[in-house]
Amino acid sequence: MKRLLVAAALVALPLPALAQTSLQMIENGRALFNDKSLSASGRVSCATCHPMNGHTDNKTYVGLDVVPDGDPKGRSTPTMWGAGIRQAEWSWAGNIPSIETNIRGIIVNRMKGSEPTKETLDALAAYVRSLPNGPAPFLDADGMPRDTAPADVRRGYALFSGKAGCMTCHSPASYDKKGPEDVGSGGPFKVPSLRNVSKTGPYFHDGRFKSLDEAVTFMWDFYRKKNDSKDTLSDAEKRDLVAFLRAL
Ligand code: HEC
Ligand code: HEC
User: pTM of the prediction?
Assistant: First the structure.
């Protein structure tokens, strides 16, 4: 009943007031994101692992414990940058349809905090969805390289969208995809967004790869085998693919 009244009140507000309401919600979300009292110990906030406005601390965790990169139980911290335009579902398992449900799980299971209210979840979700991607001066609004992008970036894009087959899963502008895929990395996992990817290592759900070169080689080997492709990628072509990824 209370929610209905709030909804009715929102509908009656003039537009600028509505925009102000959502700005206020994002601001509340930002404060909660930095609020350590969401965790049972009172020592950990969302920003502890997602510093720099929701980015990643580049570590691999089981619960609140840092574990060696590549530990099969470990999960590497994803960035929240660009979360608002993603196509994939949430978590590395890639099977949680709503970001609010995912955040609730993190508070209750990972941070062992008390059950959050709907208002808390809505504000945190609004903040996370509001976070822009990092600067990508060589991309246009659709995520394609501009004519002004360096030649290796443009060659890399041609490979990515052509014979390397990457775009069958990583599709622009977010360079991810709805629905998990099994690429032989230990089960089905989310097809992660490749935006900002030069700053999100270590790579894969368990943080097994330090460098983009390793991740690209793994992905290409998988794609080539799966499709019985007779194509090859030279070292120079792999370098072009990495140059393209770095422009995302
Ligand atoms: C101890 C470090 C840590 C803390 C604290 C933490 N996170 Fe995360 N976050 C992670 C890790 C690791 C994952 C990946 C877990 C998985 O998918 O299995 C993750 C995943 C996420 C995802 C899913 C992203 C995606 O692309 O699927 C969201 C959203 C998120 N965190 C938001 C938050 C919010 C909001 C908070 C605070 C309530 C928070 N996180 C606190 C480490 C942390
Ligand atoms: C069949 C779908 C599929 C294809 C094709 C594919 N990928 Fe992926 N990609 C995935 C999945 C799933 C993961 C996550 C695997 C994991 O975490 O274990 C991933 C992870 C990655 C990562 C690591 C990102 C991160 O944040 O950890 C990079 C980089 C990447 N892919 C690049 C490529 C490139 C380059 C190609 C083409 C050579 C490609 N992918 C082809 C599904 C695909």
Answer: 0.93
